Every structure is written in C-alpha cells, then in structure tokens.
Amino acid sequence: MFDVAVIGGGPAGLSAGTALARALRSVVVIDGGEQRNLGAESVHGFLSREGMRPRDLLAAGREELARYGGTMSSGFVRTASRDGDRFVLTLDDGSNRVARRLLIASGIMDELPELPGVADRWGRDVLYCPYCHGWEVQNQRIGVLAADSHSVRQALTFRQWSPDVTLLLNDALELTQGQEEQLAARSVHVVEGKVRALEVRDDRLAGAALDAGETVPLDVLVVSPATTSKANMLQRLGLEPAALQDGPGSRLETDESGRTSCPGVWAAGNATDVSAQVMTAAAAGLRAAEAINADLVLADTRRAVEAARVPSRQ
C-alpha cells in the first residue's frame, strides 16, 4: 500500500509526487500519457524552462520523481473506491493500486468546436491561451472564432500582440453597442456569417472559409473550447465536477489547499483550475502535496498516541 496515489502525471501530478517522495512518503503517480499540451511545440511562462518541449519537461519530471524514490505507473484509472481508511484504484489493465490518500491531477479535456480542420491544427495555429502563444503569433493575422461574449474579451486581449485581429461572429454572438465600440476603438475587425471550414496550404493555416463563399485570410485561429474535468473515475467516491460559472465546462471544487469534499482526496492543476498554466499547475501540485503530508502526519500521530495508550501485556 502506498501513502499517496496521484492520478495524472502532468506538471501538477509530478510536482506533487516529487514533493511527497522528498517527504519520505511512498507515492505512485499513475499516468496514461494524455497531457493537454502535448500538441504544443514548447512550454512558456515556466521560469527557467522557457521554450522547452512539453515531452521533455515531463521526462525531466519523471526522472526527478524516480530520483527520490517515487513510483511511476502507466495506465488509466477506471474506478476509484474507498475500502475503510484506504482507496483502491483499478486501472484499465485490471490491476489495482491501494493508497491512504488520493490526489486527482488528471487534468481536463478540451472539447473543440466542430469545425473541419480545427482538431488537426490544435496547438499549432489553432490556439486558446494568449499567454502561452501570444509572443509566437505577434503581428500575424489572428482570427477569433466567436462562441459567446467571452470571445470579445479574447479578441481585445490578442489585440495586444497583433494589429490585425478579426472577430468571426460565426452566427454565435450578437454584439452589444458597447462591445461594438470597444472593438472599433481597438481596430478589431468584425466579420459576420457562419464559418464553414478552415483553409490550409502547405501545412499552414491560410484562412477561414465562410458559408457565403468568402475566405478570411488568417495565420492563426483562436477558439474557446469547453473544458471538462477528467473525473469519471471518481463517481464511486461521490465526487462530481461542478459546472463553470464563466463558460462551458466543469472542474472539481476544492479549498485553497486542494482538499475536496471527499475526506482523503485532494485535487490540483487543470482538474480544479481550467485556466492554470504549466507553472501554476505545478505550484498547485506542490501546495496539495504539503497539505496531504500534513494530513498524514496528523493521522500517523493519532495512531501512535492510540498505540501508546494500549496497556502492555505482562
């Protein structure tokens, strides 16, 4: 039995696993290799790791985990259930992992717009996060595919990186007068009409084709994917993701330390904060690891006190 099982081997999970291993806890990190940013060319906003490939960052994290005695286990957790004061995780190969505490760092799933070409270009020239990719697309022709009122804010934000930004309404958004004034004041173009597909030439985005026949020339397309927490394995524990208040999708609710409403279970990273970047996800994993270790210290102390109170046999 492990002290802690971590579901998910991304930045949050590996950061937590390494911290727990350094606290001399037995820890297993279970990962199926489906990190959200694997399609991206590089990591940004991570101090001292600027421009590193996502796979290389994860490889370094796994090496650090192993260096301190942590265990890496490949696979997907299908179910998580409680058995007394421990948790039993069943993997897709039928094997089990048993632990005293559980950390959910399984991330989220991006539900992309159902538009031909979007999925193939995701993480390359179809993007979402300005702070992850804004520098790389500066001064390019940026299109923002409207989904709701948040798309206006996206267009205004990406205007910081390029003077050529177009908001494609896509029959999904009716602008208010105030929004029209904001966009006009920042010289953001507005194009009406339904987007039919993306046009790609020489493995590069060339534009967005409209139903009306027009093509809007673009180098980059910004979308608003629905982000859903990967938490199906938690149903037996009574943990259900909560709907986001400011957009489509869901997340696991926690306190500041990452503790969920289920005793003994914490969550960190994108599973609980869909906007978390690599560095903030790693920091959340560290914070949760500290809270889990503190909880185990209290549990170990209670057990020791109880054992000391038992009269010794003569």
Low-confidence stretches: none
Strand content: 25-35%
Estimate the mean pLDDT confidence: 94
Inertia-based shape:
elongated
What quaternary form is this? single chain
Number of DSSP E strands: 19
Structural class: alpha/beta
Rg computed from alpha carbons, rounded to a whole number of angstroms: 23 Å
State the separation between the terminal residues, measured CA to CA. 33 Å
Largest sheet: 7 strands, mixed
Count up the helices.
7
Helix and strand run: EHEHEEEEEHEHEHEHEEEEEEEEEH
- CATH architectural category of the largest domain: 3-Layer(bba) Sandwich
Helix content bin:
25-40%
Total separate domains: 2
CATH top level label of the largest domain: Alpha Beta
CATH topology category name of the largest domain: FAD/NAD(P)-binding domain
CATH superfamily of the largest domain: FAD/NAD(P)-binding domain
